[in-house]
Automatic annotation (TrEMBL):
Gene3D superfamilies per UniProt: MetI-like
Record organism: Leisingera daeponensis
Protein name, per record: ABC transporter permease
Source lineage: Bacteria, Pseudomonadati, Pseudomonadota, Alphaproteobacteria, Rhodobacterales
SUPFAM superfamilies the UniProt entry points to: MetI-like (SSF161098)
Superkingdom as given in the UniProt entry: Bacteria
Amino acid sequence: MTDKERFVPDEGMAPASTAVPGAAQLEELHNPPRSQWLNVWHQFKSHRGALMGGALFLFIILAVYLGPFVWDIEATKIDIRARNQGPSWAHPLGTDQLGRDMLARMMAGGATSVSVGLTAMLLALGLGSLLGVLAGFFKKLDGPLMRLTDLFLALPLLPLLLVMMLLFREPLNAAFGPEQGIFILIVVSIGVTSWMPTARIVRGDVLALKEREFVMAARSIGTTNSGLITRHILPNVLSPIMVSATLGIATAIITESSLSFLGLGFPPDFPTWGRLLFDATDYLQQYPERVFWPGLAISLTVLSVNYLGDGLRDALDPRIRGR
């Protein structure tokens, strides 16, 4: 056999250097792998309830914070001659017993309620995440911190809030004024009594993560504990933290509304959605729409935040993503 015959390829076989790539390779070349956040967004936008909830919550945020710049009637302006009026062009949601515009009071009350919800959520999220990471990462702190968490979970929430209001209301009002003082008191009270679920969720994820191979490899090359927590642990527990954040907003808004409805929230001339409900109970039979509007606003806000949290959970959890 000659050298020429020895190196002639079989008929029907293309040389290795001229092989045509398959469809999968072509698709990979034309569609490079997406980043993690693009995958999260792709999964999130496939959840219709989450999209609708996010759009509704964004609309509520814009309405309560930017609405007063468009509707320039002051929420505290009293006009006795226009009291107890129904919906009209001048007052689309009518007026209350003192002639105050209900649309303006709804926007001002919404800004206060949403601000309380966001600020209390940030406080509870920071406290719960800190304690959860410490309990899950350091074995010596796990027992004491979890027993502290169990203690707070065993306390009745509403009576504890009422006691805190009675004890600290007057000192804070004297130090910061009636409006800022009660805002600080409500935010701190809700924040320090709602961090426990976040701490438990974060602790469970940290316990699983610190035994993973990439954490052990980072520890083997001399990475400090603070470096392990900030670079490897916290980025991987972002999913439960963000879900807890969305649900914490709803819980804080409902708690603030409950306190205001009981008359222990903000002053009477400082509107919130809960305070509007409290003021409208005396006129429920004559003017039921005064209860309907703030109740509807609270319900839609909580519902939108819950749907938003449900979509974020599905999008951020790699075990659920792609189902």
